[in-house]
Amino acid sequence: MIYLNYAASCPIHPDAKEEIETTLTEFYEYLYSATGIQWYRTKVQQCRETVARVLHVPDPSCIAFVPNASTANYVLLSSIDWKQGDIVVSSTHENPSIRNKLLALSHRGVELRFLPPTASPQQFLTSVHDALHEQPIKAIILSHVSHVDGRIFPIPEIAAMAKERHALLLVDGAQAVGHIDVHVDTLQCDAYFFSGYKWCSGPLGTGGLVISQRLLEHAPSIQEKPAPAEQPLASRFEIGSHNIGLIAGLAKACEHINQEGLNTEGLQNIREAVKQQLRQMKDTRVREWDGPQAPGILTFQHQHHTMLMKIFQKHNIVVKPLTEYPEGEIPAMRMSWLGSADTQNVTKTLDIIREALPVQPS
Predict the structure, then answer these.
(1) Which of 260, 278, 303 is the last residue of a domain?
(2) Would you say the pTM of this structure is higher than 0.85?
């Protein structure tokens, strides 16, 4: 199998897998005895501190652990005090799970506005600015990195505009954390959430949610939730006990990111090579905007999409087909890679495409 769908799920780091087993073995010696409860709380706090370092979050108590980004989004949207007539702004590039939860808000009288893609960050900022000034906006919900084509949205600039107009900004970082350098402290958003099993190479069933004090002002049900004084603020967004082994595995994966850094240059080199070769192929169009792009994602369209997908299936090549949204940008195919070890798979995939499709004359 040639796997080029790391934006969907990455293999767990071996050390993270080992950490899960070690942590659970230790926990089972105590279970929920007095000693075990204290051990559990200490371990969770250590994990919060590790994740805080990779996200550049000054206060680890603002980090809640969740099973995935979709759950974080669900908890957030369920906690906010929505009123009929509230307006939410988002984009047509959001993950289906995020979009579906937003659509559910419409049954409560919340108005939704999905901004279409633009050719440049400045054009998108203009769209956000216009939306914020036409009517009062309750919240903006936006990806940090688009899962559709890897564009990096200008979150700090949007946060400044949202703050000026008293709108919340909730950011989906599922395609960002572990992929690009994320400084939550400078993004100035009201909530930031991510999945641990994508670019972080953590275990399935893990993720994180960073919340701000300002968010609590719009979430009275969470604010009223009783919690012992010694528990972190973000624990109000956590439902029940964690699988402490999985959380420890996520923390270990994040620790490796802190120690080893991101392979941004290597991923970008692969992307530039892929883009250059795809642009030489007839009836092929690379999807991107005139702005920052995440280095491990490239999306392209081909006139004979169905035929190409059959070729991939024949050769057991795994990519992400985009066939349902966003309007005007489908059908398309998203390729994503994790590191230099994927170079051979990328090269082989391009050779297979080249054999099946004519090359434009020079």
Answers:
(1) 260
(2) yes
